[in-house]
Structure formats: structure tokens, C-alpha cells
Design goal:
heterodimer; A: mainly alpha; 3 helices; elongated; B: mainly alpha; Sodium/glucose cotransporter
């Protein structure tokens, strides 16, 4: 259970703490201001992280079997 | 009447028609009218939950804030993500408890958890107060859309009245089943319109998205990031946190989770909902494209940016389609919020205070309250002088106050007593009300604070007050003692 909680904390760190460090426009990444790119990256990462959490979560495995 | 208005009124009539059709063949009791019975599957719950990010707030407010504020608008893309992460654990727990105790409302949840009818009534009132600005922003949005599409022949006030009357009639004839059908059409239209505009405008006007941002950066350096003061980094962080925590505390959202068939639906949705949010990017692109094309909009007028640039670029017919999409983004959430607010007042406030009233009469009262709540929201939308984003943030600073009591009650050993929960929420709400009515900010109240703290969203400060009072009062009323006994 521990690992999935650590994983779930990552988007909070990335967005709430990270934004303070990436608050600038340049360099543009994928055409987007850096801060916007950072947020978009975390939105995508959140999806991936939640997919991993879903896989690792033992309560889901019990139900499936 | 021009082509744009014809298209918009056609869609309005069509939505009403669907609402009436959805109602036929079913006798609607209270449960049918509000939660559509239980047993909605993954897709429908997904749409119901995902639909939240496609309201007038995002359509007009998201583009308007990108236009008017720049970087701070990115908060809109950030909070949903965090809310979905929490939903993975929060919603199954809420759902399980609601199913076990056959709950129908958010108020019922608090009544059962804290064994207090009084707390249920209090929570209901707080929730309704929070919903008024949320509803008001939908009416404001409808007013902007209809008035813009009329090319100036209908004033914003008259347009807002037309919008309010439409939503009211819609709710009174259809209920949630009608909204379900319209929600599907709405989501498809938003997807098409937003993505098409979000790509078309930057490419035709600037030659690409990167080019557009480069030009904005050249003309207004730093506009695309967060400013040092005002909507600064600390504002951003506190606002994202406030809105993420409050996300599922809206009564219409909280109870829409009850309609799921099983709890796995929420866990699966937590994977896909963040990605679905990326549509917001295109909403931002529309607002940014308007910055150098239709400059000069200020204050609450920034909400018109999307429609004004559309009118410059497209024929009235296309403007009508865009306007119709905006109409649906206001109609669907507006009707759900209106219906839930009226039901909560009738059932969880009036019904709880006068338990002998039979259900048929409560149902009648709920319907009678629909136009009353609509009028209050209409009045609010006209006098607040705020744009749609600030209206929603105002609602959030109230509704998030329910978060600590709701979440802690799901813990195995909840130390919060009913007195602690009530006092905490009251303290939080009082803090927000005082600061809003006095029209101050934390920086004005406590001028010695550094800028970092001064920009903090008032809702988060109120949440800390709420939490501290909750712990203190729970301690005084024996919450911790109970906990110790239980854990031994």
C-alpha cells in the first residue's frame, strides 16, 4: 500500500511545488510557454501514474480474481 | 433576427425537446428527478463527471482569463488533475458508505456520519450559498452568448433574463435524464468547436502555436507566466489546492457519485479524466489568439474574448454554432445545479425541519423553489460585477469548507465531533464572508505579511481557520477521548 501513496503524492509535488521553480515563459517547449508545458507534462504523467497505481493496488486484484 | 440567433434558438428548442422526450414514459418521483435512479455505468458516470470541466466557466472563463490574465489561467488546467488523484481513494469510500446506508444526498451523508440532523441542515445551507455564484456564472455566460450573437440588438441584461428563463423551464420539464441526453451532444460539440478554433485561430492568425506565443512574449514579456504580485505563485498554489480539495464537495457532484454501479468505475475514471482535461489547452489557445487581434477588453468584459474574435473571423452562421455550444455548456450544468439547489432546500432544509411533510409535497416545493433560486442567481450575476472565473472561485471558497469534516469522517477513528465539524465549517464560512463583504484581501488585513502570504487565496486561509477550530472544539467536546477508547 505504501508505494501507491508515494506515487499519488508525485502530481501534488510536481504541480504545487514545481510551479514555483518553472515560472517562466522561455524556453518555449512544444511551442508552449515553459510553465504551461510543465503543467501539461504533469497532467499526462498523472494519467500514467494513476494507471500504475491501478495496477499495483491490491484491492483491485482481489476483485478481479 | 440574424443567422447566429436562429442557430442558437434552434439548439435551445432542440434541448428542450430532448428534455421533454426523456421525461415521457417515466413517472418521476424524487429519486428519478434527481439521481436518475441508481445504476449508471462507466460511460455515463464518466460523462457526468467529465462534463464538469466543460461548463461556461471553461468555455468563456478559461479563454477570457487566458486573454485577460495570461499565465494565471493555467490554474484551470492544474486542479482537476489533483482532484482526480484524490478521487481514487475518496469516491469509493463515499460511494461505499452511501450505498451501505442508502443515502440520497450530501446532507444525508453528514447526518449519518455525525449523527446530527442539525449539521445536515447547516451543511445544506452552506452548499446552497456556494452554488449561487456557480449558477450565476452560467446565467452570466448565457447572457454574454445571446447578447453577442445578436450583434448588439439584445442587451446583456435581457439576454441573461432569456437565459435564466430557458434554464428554469428546462429544469422544470426535464430533470436529470434530460440533462444526460443534452450532455452527450454538448460534450461532442465542445470537443469539435474548441479543438477546431484552438488550432484554426493560432495557425491562420499567427502561423502556428509556437509563433503565437513568441509574438505575445515579444509584445508583453512575462504575461504568459505568473506575475510577482497579485495572481502570483502563492496565489496559484493556494488556488489550485483550494479548488482541488473542493472539487467533489459540490452537492451535485458529491451525489452524482452515488449514481455509479460500482466503485471500480471511479478508479478507472481517475486514469482517463486527467487526459480528457487537455481539451482546456485549446480553450487557452483561443483566448491567447485574441490578445493581439481584439485588444482592449478589460475587467469582466474579457469573458467576451472568444465570441468577439469568432465574430471577426467567421460568418454569423458559424458564430451561431459556437454560440449554441456555449449555450449548452451553460444549460446542462446550470440545470443540474439549479435542480440540486432547489432539491436540497426543499428536502434537506425544509423537509428536515418539518419531518412530517409527505414526499409529494416536498417534491412540489422543490419545483416551486426552482424559479426562486434562479431569480436569486440572476440577481447575483448582475450585481456582482465579477467575471465568470472570480464567481466560481467565490463559490469554491465556500464549498471547500466542507472538505475537512467530510474527509475526516471517512477515517476509521474520526476524532471530529458534530460540534467540531459544525464550528469549523461556521468559522471557515465566516472568514470568507467577512473578507468578501469587506472587500479586502489578506494583504490589506495584515499589511506586515510578506507578498508570498499576502497573495494566498482567502479560501485556503479560511480552511486553516476551519481546521483549527474543528480540532479545538472537537477536543473540548470529547472527540479525542472517544477516539482513545475506540483504539484501545
Amino acid at each position: 500500500m505504501k508505494l501507491i501513496h508515494v506515487l499519488a503524492a508525485l502530481p501534488f509535488l510536481g504541480i504545487l511545488v514545481g510551479v514555483g521553480f518553472v515560472n517562466r515563459v522561455e524556453p518555449l517547449v512544444l511551442g508552449m510557454p515553459f510553465i504551461l508545458f510543465w503543467i501539461v507534462m504533469w497532467v499526462v504523467l498523472t494519467s500514467i501514474i494513476m494507471a500504475i497505481v491501478y495496477r499495483l493496488d491490491p484491492t483491485n486484484r482481489e476483485d478481479a480474481e | 433576427m440574424n443567422a447566429a440567433l436562429v442557430v442558437i434558438f434552434f439548439f435551445l428548442a432542440f434541448a428542450l425537446f430532448l428534455g421533454i422526450m426523456a421525461r415521457r414514459g417515466q413517472d418521476m418521483d424524487m429519486e428519478q428527478w434527481t439521481v436518475g435512479g441508481r445504476g449508471f455505468g462507466t460511460l455515463f458516470v464518466f460523462l457526468l463527471l467529465a462534463g464538469e470541466i466543460y461548463t461556461t466557466f471553461t468555455f468563456l472563463g478559461g479563454s477570457g482569463w487566458a486573454y485577460g490574465e495570461g499565465g494565471p489561467a493555467f490554474y484551470i488546467l492544474s486542479y482537476g488533475c489533483l482532484a482526480y488523484v484524490m478521487s481514487y481513494w475518496l469516491l469509493p469510500a463515499v460511494w461505499r458508505y452511501a450505498k451501505e446506508h442508502r443515502l440520497h444526498s450530501q446532507s444525508g451523508f453528514f447526518v449519518k456520519k455525525y449523527e446530527s440532523k442539525g449539521l445536515g441542515v447547516f451543511v445544506s445551507l452552506v452548499a446552497v450559498v456556494a452554488m449561487v455564484p456557480y449558477l450565476a456564472l452560467q446565467f452570466l455566460g448565457l447572457g454574454i452568448i445571446v447578447s453577442s450573437a445578436s450583434y448588439g440588438t439584445i442587451s446583456p441584461l435581457v439576454a441573461a433574463i432569456i437565459g435564466t428563463v430557458s434554464v428554469t423551464i428546462y429544469v422544470m420539464v426535464s430533470g436529470i435524464r434530460g440533462s444526460a441526453w443534452t450532455a452527450v451532444i454538448k460534450d461532442v460539440m465542445v470537443l469539435v468547436v474548441v479543438v477546431a478554433l484552438g488550432i484554426y485561430l493560432p495557425f491562420t492568425l499567427y502561423g502556428g502555436i509556437g509563433e503565437m506565443f513568441r509574438e505575445i512574449q515579444a509584445q508583453r514579456p512575462g504575461f504568459l507566466a505568473l506575475p510577482d504580485e497579485g495572481y502570483s505563485v502563492s496565489w496559484f498554489v493556494s488556488t489550485v489546492l483550494l479548488t482541488a480539495l473542493g472539487f467533489y464537495m459540490w452537492p451535485h457532484y458529491f451525489t452524482s457519485t452515488f449514481s455509479a454501479e460500482n466503485e471500480k468505475i471511479f478508479k478507472r475514471n481517475a486514469i482517463f479524466l486527467p487526459l480528457y482535461q487537455l481539451v482546456l489547452l485549446f480553450v487557452f489557445f483561443i483566448g491567447f489568439a485574441a490578445i493581439l487581434q481584439v485588444p482592449g477588453l478589460e475587467g469582466e468584459r474579457v469573458d467576451q474574448a472568444l465570441l468577439i474574435i469568432s465574430k471577426e473571423e467567421f460568418s454569423p452562421f458559424v458564430v451561431g454554432l459556437i454560440g449554441a455550444t456555449g449555450l449548452l455548456t451553460a444549460l446542462v450544468p446550470g440545470s443540474i445545479i439549479l435542480m440540486v439547489a432547489a432539491t436540497v432546500l426543499a428536502k434537506n432544509v425544509f423537509g428536515a425541519l418539518s419531518p412530517s411533510t409527505e414526499e409529494r409535497r416536498i417534491m412540489l416545493l422543490a419545483r416551486l423553489l426552482v424559479p426562486v433560486v434562479a431569480l436569486v442567481a440572476l440577481w447575483f450575476s448582475q450585481q456582482s460585477g465579477q467575471g465568470v472565473v472570480l464567481l466560481l472561485l467565490r463559490g469554491y471558497s465556500f464549498v471547500t469548507q466542507l472538505f475537512p469534516a467530510a474527509t475526516l469522517s471517512l477515517l476509521p477513528n474520526n476524532f471530529v465531533t458534530k460540534w467540531g465539524a459544525g464550528a469549523g465549517i461556521a468559522a471557515g464560512v465566516a472568514t470568507v464572508t467577512y473578507v468578501t463583504v469587506a472587500g479586502t484581501t489578506i494583504g490589506d488585513l495584515l499589511p506586515f505579511l510578506p507578498q508570498v502570504l499576502a497573495d494566498t487565496n482567502i479560501g485556503i486561509v479560511a480552511l486553516f481557520v476551519n481546521f483549527a477550530v474543528m480540532i479545538g472544539v472537537s477536543f473540548a467536546t470529547g472527540g479525542f477521548a472517544v477516539r482513545r477508547e475506540q483504539s484501545v
